[in-house]
Design brief:
This is Aspartyl/glutamyl-tRNA(Asn/Gln) amidotransferase subunit B. The protein is of the alpha+beta class. The chain is built from 15 helices and 19 strands. The N and C termini lie far apart (67 Å).
């Protein structure tokens, strides 16, 4: 069911540009390294100098096909590169090598979660192209053109106009980003521009079939801002129509501080780009052998992984979602669960302790401990060698080192108190000191049991064995003995 805005509804389609994680550019051997000094990764090919000829990067093709397959697209046996002609300072050739009427892949879909439930958002096409350079402003009071990025391989993922709100668009982008990251073809970095989207937004009255005039929102670098910008643009268009004005086809930006979209330029039609086949590149032919090789190398999708975590490993949907938030987090958890054997215990500890100190950057992640250390620590708790509270102390000592948890327990003289007679003596003191709570517990307020456990743990510094504490307390409290007897 579409989101409505009074008597209007929005029609939204996203065009996502995702840089492919190849070491070199789409049509030359220049490095795709990010953040290096301007114009240090250029050559006659990516500078568009006369006589320079492009050569297609095979690894870029493999990654593009991987992405298209992961999105359920049909791969075209033959696709054609084209020249997309337009002038901009960061486009050195005066055209961009892209694909137009014969793209790499067609007809995919992405399933997203909305307030109304699951929704299937169609994908029109996935095609390959090269990135443009970048204009840098304010360097020594000047503006310069950095062409390091020019020629970096991209895929453009063109979505069907199946979305109806900013929230749905943000959810679509999150799900798309995680798929590309989990298959290892894109690092999902919105700030650096390696994953970015243009949103095509139009409105129409509820019940109308004809699409309204669309505007394109560009250069928005966070999911939250994408949602904000789309919803604001929807309301801007509705206001224009209601006051008798018309929506103009434009390209607009978003000012997050002022919470408004603003005009960048009037939008060109496809005919303005004067597409024609790239004469220096033959058609791209993807044969069955290559397709089978790529399909066979595809890893488990994030959605399938979440499903397996909940159905097979018995994790909660929330835990499964957290632990598939990044491919390296998922891998860390799975290795720790494999080594320990109890996925639920491992999931709880990783979420509560490890992820607090984990750091992710692109496709990489750093963790304060190893999966083996986590598994070893939880085994000590299982064996009764230390308590859950002590496990957190051991974790703090272990973080940032390669020390085994057992060595830390030995060196610090940690040992769980499991002597039933000693715990019974402490429990007797607790019961004697809390007569009202004992009477209330025996009167039916059994939730007070946790209070007595807490008091014993407090007196033992958390070292008492929970199992022994529970057994002793139940015997004393339910045996009917008077406090202090």
């Amino acid at each position: 069911m579409a989101t409505t805005y009074g008597s209007f509804e929005a029609v939204i389609g996203l065009e996502v540009h995702a840089q492919l994680l190849t070491r070199t550019k789409a049509f030359c051997g220049c490095a795709t390294s990010f953040g290096d000094p301007p114009n240090t990764h250029t050559c006659p090919v990516c500078l568009g100098l006369p006589g320079a000829l492009p050569v297609l990067n095979r690894e870029a093709v493999r990654m593009a096909v991987s992405a298209a397959l992961a999105l359920g697209c049909a791969i075209q046996e033959s696709s054609v590169f084209a020249r997309k002609n337009y002038f901009y300072p960061d486009l050195p050739k005066g055209f961009q090598i892209s694909q137009f009427d014969r793209p790499l892949a067609l007809r995919g879909a992405l399933e997203i979660e909305t307030e109304a439930g699951k929704k299937r958002a169609g994908i029109t096409r996935v095609h390959m192209e090269e990135d443009a350079g970048k204009n840098l402003h304010g360097i020594g009071g000047l503006s310069i053109v950095d062409l390091n990025r020019a020629g970096t391989p991209l895929i453009e993922i063109v979505g069907e106009p199946d979305l109806s709100s900013g929230a749905e668009a943000a959810e679509y982008l999150k799900r798309l980003r995680e798929i590309l990251m989990f298959i290892g073809v894109n690092d999902g970095n919105l700030e650096q521009g390696s994953f970015r989207c243009d949103a095509n937004v139009s409105v129409r009255r509820v019940g109308e079939a004809k699409l309204g005039t669309r505007t394109e929102l560009k250069n928005i670098n966070s999911f939250r801002f994408v949602a904000e910008a789309i919803d604001l643009e929807i309301r801007r268009q509705i206001a224009l129509i209601e006051q008798g004005d018309r929506v103009r086809q434009q390209t607009r930006g978003y000012n997050a501080d002022r919470k408004e979209t603003y005009l960048l330029r009037d939008k060109e039609n496809e005919s303005g780009y004067r597409y024609f086949p790239e004469p220096d590149l033959p058609p791209l032919v993807v044969d069955e052998a290559f397709l089978a090789e790529v399909r066979g190398a595809l890893p488990e999708s994030p959605a399938d992984k979440r499903r397996r975590f909940t159905e097979s490993l018995k994790l909660t949907p929330y835990a499964a979602s957290v632990l598939t938030g990044h491919p390296r987090i998922a891998a860390f958890f799975e290795e720790a669960a494999r080594l320990h054997g109890d996925a639920v215990k491992v999931a709880n500890f990783v979420q509560s302790e490890v992820l607090r100190d984990a750091r992710t950057t692109g496709l990489t992640a750093t963790f304060p401990v190893s999966p083996a250390q986590v598994a070893g620590l939880l085994r000590l708790v299982d064996e009764g060698a230390i308590s859950g509270k002590q496990a957190k102390e051991v974790y703090t000592e272990m973080a940032g080192t390669d020390r085994a948890p057992g060595d830390i327990v030995r060196d610090k003289g940690m040992a769980v108190m499991s002597d039933a007679s000693a715990i019974e003596a402490i429990a007797g003191e607790v019961i004697a000191a809390n007569e009202k709570q004992v009477a209330a517990y025996r009167g039916g307020k059994t939730a007070l049991f946790g209070f007595f456990v807490g008091q014993i743990m407090k007196r033992t510094g958390g070292s008492a064995s929970p199992a022994v504490v529970n057994e002793v307390l139940r015997r004393l409290l339910e045996g009917g003995s008077a406090p202090g007897a």
